[in-house]
Amino acid sequence: MFAGLDFGTTNSAIGLLDASGGARVISHPHPAGLSETLRSVLAFDRHHRHADGRSLPLVGHDAIAAYLEGDGECRLLQSFKSYLTSRSFSSATILNVTYTLEQMIAFVVERLRQAAEAEGGAAVRRVVAGRPVRFVAEDGKVEEDYALTRLRQAFAAAGIGEVAFEYEPIAAAYYYERGLTRDETVLVADFGGGTSDFSLVRLGPGRACLNRPENAILGTGGVGLGGDCFDRRIIEGGIAEFFGKNTGFRSGNKVLPVPDWLYGKFARWHHIAFLGSASTMRMLRDIQRHADHPGRIEDLLTVIEYNLGYHLYRAVEGVKVALSQAEETIFAFDYDPVHIERRITRAEFEGWIAPDLAEIEDCVETLLQTTHIPATRIDRVFLTGGSSLVPAVRRIFAQRFGEERLSSGGEFVSVASGLAYRAGEIFAAG
After folding, report:
1. The pairing of beta strand 23-25 with beta strand 11-17
2. What SS3 class is residue 42?
3. How far apart are the C-alpha atoms of 111 and 76, rounded to whole Å?
4. Which domains does the chain show, CATH number per domain?
5. DSSP H helical ranges for 182-323
6. Which of 13, 57, 284, 399 is most buried (CB neighbours < 10 A)?
7. 0.70 exceeded by pTM
8. Strand partners, 315
9. Tens digits of per-residue pLDDT, 251-296?
């Protein structure tokens, strides 16, 4: 079977190429029925174990259910793709067992592989996998070889012996091209959880991506920010204040600010667990005793102690989704004893993400300049990925290229489908 696997920061998917040459994305059980995506999350608890006593990793919707229904002893992990470029993060110890980052990724990839095999009736041992245009660490250092080596090791651990990588926006171009009846010069913009990636390509019946000449790909670009970054801006701009950000506490005769680094971790919900170390908790309890707003620090302690990071994340993500449809919404976080409500407007949200929007716009402009393709020569802009639904993101392209030239679709499955088409090209030729 020819398979394309999109391992994402937030969601993952796997597509298969059928005998007729069409791609289909495999569905996974979901509380609402079936979903073409699998959440890129893991959970470990004391109630799901292997026969030898080791914790059984739960993946995707099973992981979320175990976390939501658990007794507080369930550890939920998400967004671990974002650590691929981090040389300081190699493993995590969970319930007294150490797991490497490669093992964590392998658990998700293996679940996708097994679902594809069950659906397709044959082993999946070779895949084309998506990758961002650039693997860039938080310090700005490019870590291409390091990140790809870790991904190859993870895929091998998941039972996939051969993996080829393709840029995610190129995969989305394969998906988009299937519907073309004429040749076009297309800017493909793929917005994921951790990255925003772009490709400038010539597509269509006369330049089919599946049989493309080398000059069909005119250029690529990308930035290391996506939907997770937008969530973080909501927390930084409108939520963290309820948990003590920008407040003070007394230390001797001085009033000191509550350390801002705490809220850098707090704004990345998958980092909240790192705040639970004994030394950090002691520091927070000492701050609380002398704080200007002790109740806010107590709420912060509650979120950390009771592992409420995912609940906070769901509430924040709900705000982002709601603001794609409405001019304002209510952020509500109600997990006893923490009760927070705040009205958030789209204008506020767009103000918080303005620096990120500017970085996206600069990346697109740089791509046009380096390829010497003026905006007037772009026939179509194809927007895909979850954050393409954010009005301010779409407005960047509408203002630059005109609303009439924008297309969108396959927000969560375009990359997996395109990777399956690419797998048919690579492995059939081999």
Report:
1. antiparallel
2. strand
3. 17
4. 2-168+417-429 (3.30.420.40)
5. 227-234, 261-266, 278-289, 294-305, 309-323
6. 13
7. yes
8. none
9. 999 999 999 999 999 998 778 878 988 999 999 999 999 999 999 9
